[in-house]
Amino acid sequence: MKKVAAFTQGCLVPSTRFRISQYEHKLRACEIELVQFDAKVSAYPPAAKWQRPWWLLQELIHRVSQLGKLKSYDVVILQREMISTLATVERFINKPIILDVDDAIFLRRNGRAARQLAQKAQHIVCGNQYLADYFRQYNAHITVIPTAVDTQRFLPSATKAETYIGWSGSSSGFHFLYAIEAALRSVLLLNPGWKLHIVADKPPTFTVLEPEQVVFEKWSPETEVQSIQKMAIGIMPLDDSAWTKGKCSYKMLLYMACGLPVVVSDVGMNAQLLKEAEIGLGTRSDNDWIQHLQQLIDDAELRNRFGIRGRQLVEEQYSLQYCTAKWLQVLDGEQFS
Predict the structure, then answer these.
(1) Is the four-CA dihedral 184, 185, 186, 187 of positive or negative sign?
(2) What average pLDDT does range 69-80 have in this prediction?
(3) Is 17 exposed, middle or buried (0-12, 13-18, 19+ CB in 10 A)?
(4) Which of 43, 79, 115, 159 is 20–30 Å from 289 (CA)?
(5) Tell me, what is one Gene Ontology molecular-function annotation carried by this entry (predicted)?
């Protein structure tokens, strides 16, 4: 059995859960043992600067101790850098490396760490084509594998959805919501039976939306599927920047897997998905957000049609089964035999 060590950012980090952890059983069935080596606390520094030296020392000691356990492993997967934005102890890894990237990490600290890891790796797996195009200048061995959706978990609801316009994600992405808050308020004023449903680690602080227009639900892994199933429309606002072009549209894919039509910013991978099938509507302005949301609120048949096609697209090209086959092709490559 081939043994693969995966160095992750932390066990509850979304990229760990959806780009590493959920493959464990799938790969084991194919005679590949995948073992996670998580950060001690987090690969990301604490908000308080005075805590960072102690955090960095703890994480480095932890990572060095993990490197000492690699003797029996055949391949190492690095999920980005072991310490966010820095290349540290990765240089001491003496096993074939696959660098797994799902963000534009090259935009941090002039891209030095990203460049060093890309040149050291035998293969790079990228979450979208934009990332692959960038990293190809440092490594010819590139495979695009989207962030997989477990379509056996994320399913359309058997019951009628609430009249919710929904957003699910980390509070770190609230600024994208705040940018369209006025447009959302306009839509909700026109449709008093509808509400904005937010699923996140903490409530947002809106300045224009009224409290009664918003339903907050604290995110948990146990309820994440049911939270999305309550929604009637899924939204994913973004700005148009190099950083967002590196995003892998995962919340959009989760909405689609649950049979939701989507209204999303027409940028990056969002735009790519919109071109692949009739799954929703793309926005470029506040007026677009108002018009497109109103169009879907008014047309239940259109919502249903977009939702069905979105689910089909995820099953065909973004499912855990599809992405497992792509990972097996990488791991069975001659670089790792």
Answers:
(1) positive
(2) 96
(3) middle
(4) 159
(5) glycosyltransferase activity
Q: Walk me through the domains of the chain, giving residue ranges and CATH numbers.
A: 2-148+319-336 (3.40.50.2000), 164-317 (3.40.50.2000)
And the tokens for 205?
């602080």
The answer to whether residues 283 and 263 touch, using CB atoms and an 8 Å cutoff, is yes
Measuring CA to CA, which residue among 84, 24, 7, 19 is closest to residue 253?
19
In what side-by-side order are the strands of the sheet with 233-236?
Answer: 214-218, 195-200, 164-168, 233-236, 262-265, 280-283
H or E, element range at 57: helix 52-67
Q: Nearest to residue 250, comparing CAs of 173, 164, 331, 165?
A: 173
Q: Tell me the mean pLDDT in the region 44-69.
A: 93
Q: Which of the 8 DSSP states describes residue 91?
A: G
| CA neighbor of 318 nearest in space, from 146, 83, 152, 197 | 146
Length of the chain: 337
The residue ranking higher by pLDDT, 162 or 319, is 319
- In 3D space, the residue among 23, 224, 40 whose CA is nearest the CA of residue 125 turns out to be 23
**CA dihedral over 28, 220, 290, 312, signed as positive or negative:** positive
Using one digit for the tens of pLDDT, what is the confidence trace for 284-329?
999 999 999 999 999 999 999 999 999 999 999 999 999 999 999 9
Half-sphere CA count of 111, side-chain side, radius 13 A? 14
